[in-house]
């Protein structure tokens, strides 16, 4: 083979988003994920923004049209039913219009809106869209800081692994093991295995527990307070908390840009509370890596996953965490494995238990770059480029040999290509600052 291996990938990435466009929203991957997913959609909008800004804004506005009256933004919006997915709207039975699930997902929206607004070529359209979205973003964040932090402790809780987006992360093994499927668990048939090899997906035992929690939340009529009080799965997820803190910072920046200054004291209070609460609760003293905390068991779980590096995105990554990231990246051919190679939980091809996720590389890459670790950011970007050039826009990749895994024609992988890998240096959000480790 000769020539540039990345030639034509921009056009192919655009083609992926167009193929996954269902009119106002983008499915993560045809077949496997046939609806609108919350954080997929916001990150996919960054990709759309690189070639069709109006369509990018519409993506986020369509998601927020499904916001619940209490401010929650659901993790899936079922604009129309699809028999190829389980659990669909009939199982969730939230009674909402449009139909949606009854749990949420990491709140990347405010960060995406800020990113899109600051880079907009069509500033008038962007400002109008950001103005419409601002109160909705504020309401969602307020919901997190009240419904999911009822005691005002500075961290938000998560009631289902699907809320973290990292469904079968080994961090959830212990808290999920404490979820006992009831004898009357409704029989179900998985559909994901019709699309992806079972060895690359969560196990049956995990699905039984995912469904046990869904059944419980349905019985509780999706009452937030009841869900937090009664869920046997109750964790402090480093990814959700880091992303929320970052999103609060971006929301404050939006409030300044949009002249929404009345909201600032409240947002600043959320930020200050999180900055105080998160590091002592989540950071492993030796490595600086943020690790999930199990509130039912009352302990930090001590499980190492790439989610812990999102501390950088929150602006709280310590210098020793950069050294940890370097070592972790050195252990595989392609960075960054979701679980460190050599860890007993490492499973190179199974979803969130080992594979490299371009979207995680993007979020961690931005965080490290903005924190001054430019070399690390460049490394994550380079490996992401190599994986996509080799295997296409796959959902995730084997960190040892680069094999593409999971869904194909994957929306947020294409978006990460457009918005990060294929951007000039100045737009990557990862340049200029000197790298303290260099
Ligand atoms: C799935 O179906 O695998 C999703 O991750 C749930 O949101």
Tell me what you see in this structure.
- The chain has helices spanning 9-20, 38-48, 53-64, 89-92, 109-119, 123-147, 161-164, 173-177, 204-219, 224-230, 238-258, 264-282, 319-330, 358-370, 374-391, 411-421; strands at residues 36-37, 76-78, 99-100, 235-236, 293-294, 299-300, 396-397, 404-405.
- By secondary structure, the protein is mainly alpha-helical.
- The chain has a single domain (8-424), classed as Glycosyltransferase, CATH 1.50.10.
- Strands 1-2-3 form a three-stranded antiparallel beta sheet. The chain has a three-stranded antiparallel beta sheet with strand order 4-5-6.
- Helix 1 runs antiparallel to helix 16, helix 2 (38-48) runs parallel beside helix 5 and helix 6 crosses helix 11.
- Residues 430-438 have low confidence and may be disordered.
- The site of (2R)-2,3-dihydroxypropanoic acid (DGY) has 4 residues, from loops.
- (2R)-2,3-dihydroxypropanoic acid is lined by residues 75, 162, 167, 192.
Q: Can I get a quick summary?
A:
By secondary structure, the chain is mainly alpha-helical.
Q: Record the strand order, biggest sheet.
A: 1-2-3
Mean pLDDT: 95
What overall form do the CA principal axes indicate? globular
Q: SSE string, helix = H, strand = E? A: HEHHEHEHHHHHHEHHEEHHHEEH
Determine the fraction of residues in helical runs and give it as a percent range: 40-55%
Any idea how many domains?
1
Strand content: under 5%
In the CATH scheme, the class would be: Mainly Alpha
Give the end-to-end Cα distance, rounded to a whole number of Å: 34 Å
Task: Tell me the total number of β-strands.
Answer: 8
* Strand-pairing-aware structural class: mainly alpha
Oligomeric status of the shown chains? single chain
The main sheet comes to: 3 strands, antiparallel
CATH structural architecture? Alpha/alpha barrel
């Amino acid at each position: 083979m000769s020539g540039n291996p990345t030639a034509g990938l921009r056009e192919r990435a655009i083609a992926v988003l167009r193929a996954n466009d269902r009119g106002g929203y983008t499915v993560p991957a045809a077949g496997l994920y046939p609806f609108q997913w919350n954080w997929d959609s916001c990150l996919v909008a960054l990709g759309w923004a690189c070639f069709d800004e109006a369509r990018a804004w519409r993506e986020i506005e369509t998601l927020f049209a499904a916001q619940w009256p209490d401010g929650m933004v659901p993790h899936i919006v079922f604009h129309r039913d699809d028999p190829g997915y389980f659990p669909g709207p009939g199982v969730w039975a939230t009674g909402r219009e449009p139909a949606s699930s009854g749990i949420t997902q990491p709140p990347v929206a405010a960060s995406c809106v800020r990113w899109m607004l600051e880079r907009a070529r069509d500033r008038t359209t962007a400002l109008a869209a950001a103005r419409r979205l601002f109160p909705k973003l504020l309401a969602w964040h307020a919901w997190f800081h009240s419904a999911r932090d009822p005691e005002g402790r500075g961290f938000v809780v998560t009631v289902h692994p699907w809320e973290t987006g990292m469904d079968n992360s080994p961090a959830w093994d212990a808290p999920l093991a404490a979820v006992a499927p009831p004898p009357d668990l409704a029989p179900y048939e998985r559909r994901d295995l019709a699309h992806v090899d079972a060895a690359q997906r969560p196990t049956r035992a995990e699905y039984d527990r995912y469904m046990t929690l869904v059944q419980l939340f349905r019985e509780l009529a999706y009452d937030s307070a009841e869900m937090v009080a009664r869920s046997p799965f109750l964790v402090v997820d480093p990814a959700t908390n880091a992303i929320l803190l970052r999103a609060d910072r971006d929301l404050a920046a939006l409030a300044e840009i949009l002249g929404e200054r009345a909201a600032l004291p409240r947002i600043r209070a959320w930020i200050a509370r999180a900055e105080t609460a998160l590091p002592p609760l989540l950071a492993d003293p030796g490595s600086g890596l943020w690790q999930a905390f199990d509130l039912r068991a009352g302990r930090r779980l001590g499980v190492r996953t790439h989610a812990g590096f999102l501390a950088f995105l929150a602006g709280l990554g310590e210098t020793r965490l950069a050294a940890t990231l370097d070592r972790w990246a050195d252990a595989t051919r392609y960075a960054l494995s979701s679980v460190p190679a050599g860890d007993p939980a490492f499973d190179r091809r199974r979803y969130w238990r080992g594979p490299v996720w371009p979207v995680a590389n993007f979020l961690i890459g931005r965080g490290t770059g903005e924190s001054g670790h430019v070399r690390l950011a460049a490394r994550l970007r380079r490996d992401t480029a190599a994986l996509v050039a080799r295997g296409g826009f796959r959902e995730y990749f084997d960190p040892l040999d680069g094999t593409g895994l999971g869904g194909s024609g994957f929306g947020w992988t294409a978006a990460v290509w457009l918005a990060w890998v294929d951007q000039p240096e100045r737009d990557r959000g990862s340049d200029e600052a000197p790298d303290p480790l260099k």
